Amino acid sequence: MSDVPAASAASGRGTRPSWRAGDTSPLRVPLPPAGPAWFPTVMGSGILSTLVALLWSEYAAGLGVATALLVVTWVLLIGLTAGFVRACRKDRDFVGAALREASQRPAWGTVSMGVMSAGSAASTVLPAWSEGLSGVALGVDAVLWTLGTVLGLVVAVDFAAGLVARLRKVRSRRPGPMGLEPGGSGGLGTPTPVWGLTVVAPMVAATAGCTFIPHVSSTAAKVALLAVIVVCFVVALALGALVFAAAYHHHWRREPLPLALRTSLWIPLGVVGQSTAAIQLIAARGSELLPESARPGILHAAHLYGIVVLGAIGTVLAAYASVMTIAGFAQRMPFGTGWWSLTFPVGTCALGAFYLGQVHVEAGWHVASGVITGVLACTWTLCAVATLTAVALTRKA
């Protein structure tokens, strides 16, 4: 989901495509090394595994597909982590650049989401095989959720601090779009939807964290966990609104989005889908701690939020992203890890629809979730084939 130039910065690779004159293949571009830039593959695989298990685990074929995707998710998670550690051991400057450069912040946001996605997939799929695996799966999920939440909040707060510092710096000068200079914030460049990767992770943490509430025994612990979840929700929603408003404003009023970043227009759907799922679970779990008279109002508000945000805003954003992406493919948009933006954000919308149907007992939303998951399966397959092809071409070069 991160763009190729940003993802390759830490490796010292150039950002210009490496094809020769006359070569119009959309797959001949520099690929970043194993590490944060590739974690969108973990995100997309993990959420597809989770959705297939949620929707079709009662069928042997569905459980088999979910399990296969879970294996893929964990192989990617372990392999990319090992590859990044190996690269850091060989070159100390590599890890320094990955941590210092502002252009790497979106990539670290995907690491946070990838880690949590792998944990959620494990805690959803493994208990479907055997109840005896529930405790282990939940423990693994809790560890990964904690790591992902801390990393996601650090990335989001760090990005927000850089943005505020930049805004203060330009107060005495003529500001650019949304108060930002054309040069962007702290080396991130001009505002694009890729910036959103720095703020979506806390919303993922909010959704995933709700699954632990039923397993917490004491009321005080439930309240504390719910407070963390609400903080994550508010941080992601507030920063997401600012970042995406700046990105769309710049895209529509200042300059068109570069061809290679067309798929990043799907990233805002990550906030749309995850916030819909999160608010349903927060309302359902949180209302249990409130007087019974307050529960209907809270659930109704969550339902209304889902209809407006997912049903209305999400539909418009998805339609616009579809048109722009199809046009990008027609113009031979080069392959990059950003293509995986076609997976996880779509999956979050399916997840939001699933929990709307589950919490409010509305079959129509479950049908919508199944349809969106089918779309996700298609985009995941497209990205997987394109990735394998790109890697094969790179090795031959």
TrEMBL record:
<dbReference type="GO" id="GO:0055085">
    <property type="term" value="P:transmembrane transport"/>
</dbReference>
<feature type="transmembrane region" description="Helical">
    <location>
        <begin position="363"/>
        <end position="393"/>
    </location>
</feature>
<feature type="transmembrane region" description="Helical">
    <location>
        <begin position="339"/>
        <end position="357"/>
    </location>
</feature>
<feature type="transmembrane region" description="Helical">
    <location>
        <begin position="142"/>
        <end position="165"/>
    </location>
</feature>
<keyword id="KW-0472">Membrane</keyword>
<feature type="transmembrane region" description="Helical">
    <location>
        <begin position="37"/>
        <end position="57"/>
    </location>
</feature>
<keyword id="KW-1003">Cell membrane</keyword>
<feature type="transmembrane region" description="Helical">
    <location>
        <begin position="63"/>
        <end position="85"/>
    </location>
</feature>
<dbReference type="GO" id="GO:0005886">
    <property type="term" value="C:plasma membrane"/>
</dbReference>
<dbReference type="Pfam" id="PF03595">
    <property type="entry name" value="SLAC1"/>
</dbReference>
<dbReference type="InterPro" id="IPR038665">
    <property type="entry name" value="Voltage-dep_anion_channel_sf"/>
</dbReference>
<protein>
    <submittedName>
        <fullName>TDT family transporter</fullName>
    </submittedName>
</protein>
<feature type="transmembrane region" description="Helical">
    <location>
        <begin position="259"/>
        <end position="283"/>
    </location>
</feature>
<feature type="region of interest" description="Disordered">
    <location>
        <begin position="1"/>
        <end position="26"/>
    </location>
</feature>
<keyword id="KW-0813">Transport</keyword>
<keyword id="KW-0812">Transmembrane</keyword>
<keyword id="KW-1133">Transmembrane helix</keyword>
<dbReference type="InterPro" id="IPR051629">
    <property type="entry name" value="Sulfite_efflux_TDT"/>
</dbReference>
<feature type="transmembrane region" description="Helical">
    <location>
        <begin position="223"/>
        <end position="247"/>
    </location>
</feature>
<dbReference type="InterPro" id="IPR004695">
    <property type="entry name" value="SLAC1/Mae1/Ssu1/TehA"/>
</dbReference>
<feature type="transmembrane region" description="Helical">
    <location>
        <begin position="194"/>
        <end position="217"/>
    </location>
</feature>
<feature type="transmembrane region" description="Helical">
    <location>
        <begin position="303"/>
        <end position="327"/>
    </location>
</feature>
<comment type="similarity">
    <text>Belongs to the tellurite-resistance/dicarboxylate transporter (TDT) family.</text>
</comment>
